[in-house]
Target: 3-keto-5-aminohexanoate cleavage protein
Amino acid sequence: MRAKSKAIITCAITGSIHTPSMSPHLPVTPSDIASQAIEAGEAGAAILHLHARDPQDGRPSPSSDLFMEFLPRIKQGTNAIVNITTGGGQGMSLDERLAAAERASPEMTSLNMGTMNFGLFPMLGRYKEFEHEWERQHLDRSRDFIFRNTFGDIEQVLKRLGEGHGVKFEFECYDVGHLYTLAHFLDRKLVKPPLFVQTIFGILGGIGPDPQNVLIMRDTAERLFGDQYHWSVLAAGRFQLPFCTMAATMGANVRVGLEDNLYIAKGKLAKSNAELVAKMRHILEELSIDVATADEARQMLDLKGVANVKF
Model:
């Protein structure tokens, strides 16, 4: 792991996992996504991880037009780094998942490092009513949802965005095998250090939210990447803040946000992404860990710079 003096906070603003009925604070419209992203940047997030949603009913959308409704506003309102999803959502083709990033040419995008089952259906037991019928279907269909990220898919993303647009990646690793897949591409020189490795805990189908697994993922990454990577951690739901806190004491960067977790405390919904960022920042500072600015994160990750985006 590369030596660092400050921790990068990533904020995942809306995602494609949670649905509008789960929280009135989940941003859905382009205006709400932009506002919450800007506020998260002001609260201390150096990187903003972004999805789009249909403003009518909140379902995940690959529409580049929707992204372009909020990306320019975010750029004007905050210096934070824009990181566009390439994961998209259920049923989206790879071309749909890449459309917004190819149009906007951001500094960063996500890149999932393996095909996996991605089970959201257990959430059906927590909610009795849904505002939109698609929400129930979205959760139930995940019983048979294969989140496809083949070697060929990954090669396409690296070529189309990495070579084509100078994009750097948030390499999303949901299990130990995903780290080895990333090492494969590093060995082939299809990815270049410094790598930003996001290890993810608590998604059904990926590695579980056990504290020992944080050590396993870190130690595996250390063996595979040495000083060629920056490590970051996110955990789903109630594990978000505890796991980020634990990992931060081990030198990790952290990711929070309403994409991954809707609660600020037990039984208490977070009112905004900024509230989650502010709490994480407070925890880091109480641990005497300095928080990186967006420009410091750009330097750490060797990004192309905001002047070279297309929005």
